[in-house]
Specification:
Blueprint lengths: L3 H21 L4 E5 L8 E4 L5 E3 L3 E4 L3 E6 L2 E2 L11 E3 L6 E3 L8 E9 L2 E4 L3 E5 L1 E2 L8 E3 L7 E3 L6 E2 L3 E7 L15 E3 L6 E3 L5 E3 L12 E8 L4 E10 L9 E8 L3 E5 L4 E10 L3 E6 L9 E3 L5 E4 L8 E8 L7 E17 L4 E4 L4 E4 L1 E5 L3 E6 L2 E2 L9 E3 L3 E4 L8 E9 L2 E12 L1 E7 L4 E5 L4 E3 L2 E5 L3 E6 L2 E2 L5 E3 L5 E3 L8 E9 L2 E12 L3 E4 L12 E3 L2 E3 L9 E6 L2 E2 L7 E4 L2 E4 L8 E8 L4 E8 L9 E8 L3 E7 L10 E10 L2 E9 L7 E5 L5 E10 L14 E2 L13 E3 L5 E5 L14 E8 L6 E5 L6 E5 L6 E9 L12 E4 L10 E5 L10 E6 L5 H4 L3 E10 L3 H4 L1 E6 L17 E5 L7 E10 ...
């Protein structure tokens, strides 16, 4: 027993703990099962394998788990379950090992603690199994070719239901299979001829020889994926009977249930299996309504119609139709679809945590077809059996509790169900006692736009739910524009500028209180001032929506514009769709641009919107649901759909029905032009072809895009050719041949196999008929050898195929065998004395020839006059055809003298020695030539020059270059150049330069206006005047464009000059200077450049004279335009180039500062010192050295040795210290490899340069004695 003193001592602590637990209220919660563990409602197991049923739950204290099977709680400790059923380590998951057949049932997990019981959704546990097929001998089936065949399959019992398929059993033993064999069977390929019904029976709708499968068996296979096993049975052997199939009408073999019940969101399938030969074309339609092409599709094999994600609006009638042309009308069957739905939540119950003394309501509502029932449970018991709490009421979808106490915590279940399924919810009610606190405080500073609704956060926590009071400053906010949400947040509707300020919330319940505050800043609202207007552009034109907005001055920098088309953002690609500030520009509009456009101007706080509509008048959209209603031997009936919304705002005018065939699938032909109010049309077909069809719609704007072509192929039967070849004729281009030509028949006109042409020929007057067969329909010519020239023949070309001849007979024609060269030659060919020879024409005459067919060996067509330049017949011959014109009417009398044939030939070359003759012609050949005559055309005017170009373009000038005339037609005496300004379509006055010499092919055209278009003309001239002109249009450069920078190509130096050559960059649109000159100066000198002007503006080189020999120079080329001081003056200099002139530079050297001189002096001083020492030694020894005497004899002053020494330097005969030697002046030193010099080649003879200053000779020259001395000194140094 605990002492009383101890209890008294710890009593305050116990009371405090109890109060804390009361205030926090967070130390317990009812259990709640995790519903994500029960996504799988059906669990399959194999006997002797394990079963794992997952279950986990949350709750405080932790829940205790149990499982219910078929409504009874499982006793894990019972003899039959102990050791075989247990919980996994995760807590509530049930593990059964090993599983037995007795374990099948409905399972439900249960989790409980002191505050309630949670129940999971029910799980159906089944043993997976599949029974074998019944055993019997293979069934032999012998259908007739082209008839239908049904292969029955009775699947065995399977849990879950097995997947049924058909295979071809190869009948191979195991030892007969090699490693490359994929198995002893092949799956039966299901296509538009072979299919299965929903029960697994196989249908061959049109039996063929290949269906025998070489005697192998058809086997039905049932596959149960749960047991990883498949069974085979129902073996069939098919032996087709007959030699050839026959045409059979369409019959309905099987169809799925007529009345179909579909569930919302699921997939529904209808199926019709038709038989017939030819193979039936199967079409599906939705009766009286348009099918949703995205969800409703015909299967690839055409037998099924599938509706995915079924909706209530899909209810109605659907129809299949099979047609193969045997009967006039298709075989049809209608289905009725009724749509229902399994339950779905409309108000799903949720967990509720409430405070003591509060009222709560649980909602549980669902919808479905039929209407679902609602059932409530408390802690796993039906509501009627749960009597623990009396303070509750309920209706069908509501469960209400009043005046809650902490002991009222519990778990509530709700079941919503109908015949198609159920919904299960497991939620808890947790009754708590928690002090009021602010869990999410207002933002310290909040910005909002005027007229907007703002929510200031003050979210609370506490049980019972705290009361919340809001203040702005000292003023409490109540009603009107102010609304306090259940969460505690304050909502202010229609915010005004005066609403800016500080806001504070106060929260309180019976267990505590709290408060928090924040500041609100209100900005002026954004308004669109310029709204877009509705547009109706024509297809291909541009369109622009304008949009401009105003906003608060503090937020202007954040203002941006966004455009939407039909609530989707407009993609700005800056190519076709552009945005400039708020304006939207759409180039080259099309029908896809039609829609509602929205401009949104926003600054991050608020936004304003404006709408406008664009209706693009464009060609119509393609029609849809194009179907083949009937396909007969010679015609088809086509139906389509087209809505008024597809007209694209231009009245519909008509449709164009097009077709293609398998012979030319890429080529579409127009078959009919139905009226705008028609939705079906008839089209004429050709036999023995496969057709598909498409439709185009036409309005006033143009022809729209075609619809998708029909999926059904319309096949027409064989027939005889519809006609014989057309345009049969003979050609006489080959002598001793009869050549027959005709238009080849297209492949679609052959109408059957076995097609050929039959050509028959008969010489007029003979009885013999010859026939020739050609079995290639593309051939259109037959050459038949004959021994006649231009004789009449009767020719017929016929067509035939395996069916027979066309109904109409071929019409024969009269043709002729090949022609030959005429036997007659024109006589007395001469110049016509009545016609004068001009620079481009001459008249001729000659005697007519005998034009009879015998003489002409063909049909006389006329004469050819042939003219050529003397000695250039092969390359310059020109033939002028003079057609024969038969005389009209009869002559009154025969003239005694035959009239000459006369003609005038034009476009002869001027100023040329010419020769000519004449020949007679028939349709293909010419006679021998007549006598040849000679004549000369006088001088004429030249043709246009071969080219004219603006080599350089400046702002005030052009440099023009041109070629000689293509045909000079005489001696060129000069060129005339004219020019005129162009302003749009207005041409200014023509100005013409002085005539230029014949040898001039470049000129400078100055004095022009900047940035102006000019038309430039040039004419060549002879003594006869100006010839044809050549025109170019050139625009002068803008003054704002910098001048093109010259680039020096080379600087060729000579002893006293340099030849500088430059070029301009090869760049379009550059501005070229009007003048160019050269600036130069000595290398290294800082100062003004010397200028050498360019005397000829056409030259791109300048020779600079009067330079010093052997000196390094810098040079650059300067482009300029205008006059210095003017506003338009500009110049541009090239990069500098360094060169050294040839020869030897004159040197002024200070010898006393030369290194070699100082060294020599030091050496002499050392020698003198040694000499003095030797003399002193000699003198000390008594010997006399007569140095003084010897010096005197040499003329030196013994008293002034230093002076004598200097005199010795002055008398240097080797040139050291002479004016020609190098000194240390850097301006006179050669630059070596850094110069652009030709010094190593010696002096350059001025004679080696031509008159324009360019270098033409070899480098080198004679050196004088002075040069040799200078060279010697350079070598010495």
């Amino acid at each position: 027993m605990i002492p009383r003193s101890t209890i008294t001592a710890y009593l305050p602590i116990l009371i405090l703990l109890i109060v804390i637990l009361q205030l926090t209220g967070a130390n317990y919660s009812p259990p709640r099962i995790n519903e994500n563990a029960f996504k799988i409602r059906n669990v399959y197991f194999k006997e002797e394998e394990d079963i794992e049923l997952p279950c986990s739950a949350e709750g405080t204290p932790p829940p205790v788990y149990s499982w219910i099977k078929d409504g009874e709680e499982i006793d894990l400790e019972s003899p039959e379950n102990k050791g075989r059923m247990s919980f996994l380590d995760d807590g509530g998951s049930l593990h059964i090992k090993p599983a037995k057949i007795e374990d099948e049932g409905i399972y439900q997990c249960q989790a409980r603690n002191a505050h309630g019981i949670s129940l999971s959704v029910k799980v159906n546990v089944r043993q997976a199994r599949i029974e074998p097929f019944r055993t019997r001998e293979p069934e032999l089936l012998r259908p007739l070719l082209s008839h239908a065949l049904k292969l029955v399959c009775v699947p065995p019992l399977s849990v879950p239901p097995a997947k049924i398929s058909w295979i071809i059993d190869k009948g191979l033993d195991d030892e007969d299979q090699d490693s490359n064999d994929q198995g002893a069977f092949n799956s039966v390929n299901l296509d538009d001829r072979i299919t299965m019904d929903f029960s697994g029976n196989l249908y061959i709708t049109n039996v063929k020889f290949d269906d025998a499968q070489n005697g192998n068996k058809y086997v039905c296979m049932a596959n149960n994926a749960q047991v990883r096993s498949f069974n085979q049975g129902e073996d069939k052997i098919v032996e087709p009977l007959g030699m050839q199939g026959s045409n059979l009408p369409v019959e309905m073999l099987w169809h799925s249930n007529t009345d179909v019940e579909g569930l919302v969101g699921r997939t529904v399938r209808f199926k019709c299996i038709f038989s017939g030969n030819p193979q039936p074309h199967i079409t599906w339609i939705r009766v009286e309504k348009k099918a949703d092409a995205d969800r409703m599709k015909q299967s690839m094999d055409k037998f099924e119609f599938v509706i995915r994600k079924v909706q209530y609006s899909d209810a109605g009638e659907y129809e299949c139709a099979g047609f193969n042309g045997i009967y006039e009308h298709p075989i049809k069957h209608r289905f009725r679809l009724n749509v229902e739905a399994k339950p779905r939540w409309t108000k799903k119950p949720t967990d509720i945590e409430a405070g003591v003394e509060e009222d709560v309501t649980f909602l549980c509502e669902g919808e479905g077809t039929p209407t679902p029932d609602v059932q409530w449970f408390i802690n796993g018991k039906p509501l009627e059996q749960a009597t623990e709490i009396t303070r509750r009421t309920f209706r069908k979808g509501q469960l209400m509790f009043t005046d809650l106490q902490e002991s009222d915590s519990q778990v509530i279940q709700c079941n919503v169900s109908n015949v198609h399924g159920f919904l299960w919810a497991d939620v808890y009610l947790n009754v708590l006692a928690i002090p009021a606190t602010v869990t999410k405080r207002p933002e310290p500073s909040m910005k909002v736009a005027e007229d907007k609704t703002v929510k200031i956060t003050c979210q609370t926590e506490g049980k019972p739910t705290p009361t919340v009071t809001w203040f702005k400053g000292d003023q409490q906010l109540l009603g009107g524009r102010y609304n306090i949400l259940p969460t505690g947040d304050l909502v202010i509707n229609g915010v005004r500028l005066r609403d800016s300020g500080n806001y504070r919330c106060f929260v309180e319940n019976r267990f505590g209180k709290d408060n928090a505050n924040g500041t609100l800043v209100v900005r002026g609202k954004t308004l669109i001032a310029t709204e877009p207007v509705n547009l109706q552009p024509i297809h291909g034109n541009d369109a622009m929506f304008k949009c401009d907005a105003l906003t608060d001055p503090h937020e202007t920098h954040k203002l941006k514009y966004t455009w939407y088309l039909d609530n989707e953002p407009v993609i700005i690609d800056n190519d076709r769709v552009l945005q400039e500030n708020g304006d939207l520009i759409i180039k080259n509009t099309n029908s896809k641009d039609t829609g509602n456009y929205t401009c949104i101007a926003s600054n991050g706080l608020d936004e304003d919107k404006a709408w406008a509509t664009m209706k693009v008048k464009a060609p119509p959209d393609p029609p849809y649901n194009v179907t083949v209603l009937t396909c007969l031997g010679r015609e088809a009936q086509i139906r389509w759909e087209f809505d008024a919304s597809q007209e694209n705002f231009s009245p519909l005018q008509k449709f164009i029905l097009e077709y293609n065939t398998s012979y030319s699938p890429e080529h579409w032909e127009m078959g009919a032009q139905p009226k705008s109010n028609e939705r079906q049309a008839k089209i004429i077909l050709s036999p023995y072809a496969n057709y598909t069809f498409r439709i185009k719609a036409v309005n006033r704007i143009g022809v729209g895009q075609p619809s998708p072509h029909t999926s059904v192929i319309c096949r027409t039967p064989i027939a005889r050719p519809g006609h014989h070849p057309k345009n049969v004729k003979t050609v006489g281009e080959k002598t001793n041949f009869l050549i027959v030509e005709w238009e080849p028949m297209d492949k679609i006109d052959l109408n059957a196999e076995g097609f050929f042409y039959n050509i028959t020929v008969q010489k007029e007057g003979d009885d013999e008929v010859e026939s020739y067969i050609i079995d290639d329909h593309t051939i259109s010519r037959k050459e038949i050898p004959v021994d006649t020239v231009y004789e009449r023949y009767i020719v017929t070309v016929q067509a035939k195929n395996q069916v027979g001849w066309p109904l109409r007979e071929a019409t024969p024609i009269i043709g002729y065998s090949g022609q030959a060269a005429p036997l007659v030659v024109p006589q007395n060919f001469e110049l016509d004395p009545e016609k004068n020879i001009s620079s481009a024409s001459a008249g001729f005459r000659w005697d007519p020839v005998d034009t009879s067919p015998k003489s002409m060996q063909g049909e006389f067509t006329g004469y050819k006059v042939r003219v050529w330049k003397k000695d250039q017949q092969d390359t310059t011959m020109k033939e002028i055809f003079i057609p024969h014109t038969p005389s009209r009417g009869k002559r009154r009398r025969r003239r005694r003298q035959v009239e000459k044939v006369r003609t005038e030939v034009r476009d002869l070359p001027s100023f040329s020695d010419l020769e000519a003759d004449v020949v007679a012609t028939n349709a293909y050949f010419s006679s021998n030539g007549s006598n040849v005559i000679n004549f000369t055309t006088p001088e004429g005017v030249p043709t246009a020059v071969s080219y004219l170009t603006a080599v350089n373009v400046g702002s005030t000038h052009f440099t023009l270059a041109w070629g000689e005339p293509v045909e000079k037609n005489g001696i060129i005496t000069g060129y005339d150049i004219g020019y005129q300004p162009i302003n749009g379509i207005v041409y200014g006055d023509m100005k013409v330069m002085d005539t230029l010499g014949a040898d001039v092919h470049q000129t400078y055209l100055g004095g022009l206006e900047a940035d102006t278009q000019y038309r430039i003309f040039i004419w060549g001239r002879t003594q006869q005047g100006k010839g044809s002109h050549y025109i170019i249009d050139v625009k002068t450069s803008e003054k704002s464009i910098p001048l093109a920078k010259p680039e020096i190509l080379e600087a060729l130096s000579r002893p006293n000059s340099v030849n500088v050559t430059w070029k301009l960059p090869d760049k379009q649109g550059q501005r070229v200077g009007a003048d160019y000159y050269v600036e130069y100066k000595r290398f290294g000198l800082v100062g003004k450049w010397n200028v050498h002007k360019n005397d000829n503006a056409m030259n791109n080189w300048i020779v600079v004279d009067n330079l010093e020999s052997g000196i390094a120079y810098e040079v650059r080329v300067v482009a300029q335009t205008g006059v210095p001081g003017d506003q338009d003056y500009a110049q541009m200099a090239s990069e500098k180039r360094t060169f050294t002139t040839g020869g030897t530079a004159f040197k002024r050297s200070n010898i006393l500062s030369s290194g070699w001189f100082i060294g020599m002096m030091v050496a002499i001083a050392i020698l003198l010192l040694i000499l003095i020492i030797v003399c002193i030694i000699k003198r000390n020894r008594g010997d006399k050295y007569h140095v003084q005497e010897k010096e005197r004899l040499r003329g030196s002053n013994q008293e002034d040795p230093a002076e004598n020494f200097n005199e010795l330097g002055k008398s240097d005969t080797n040139g050291i210290g002479q004016s020609g030697s190098f000194d240390n002046n850097p301006e006179k030193m050669p630059l070596g490899d850094e110069t652009d010099s030709m010094e190593e080649y010696g002096d350059v003879d001025p004679a080696k340069f031509n008159e324009d200053g360019s270098f033409i000779g070899e480098y080198g020259g004679q050196k004088g004695v002075g040069d040799q001395q200078a060279s010697t000194m350079a070598t010495l140094v």
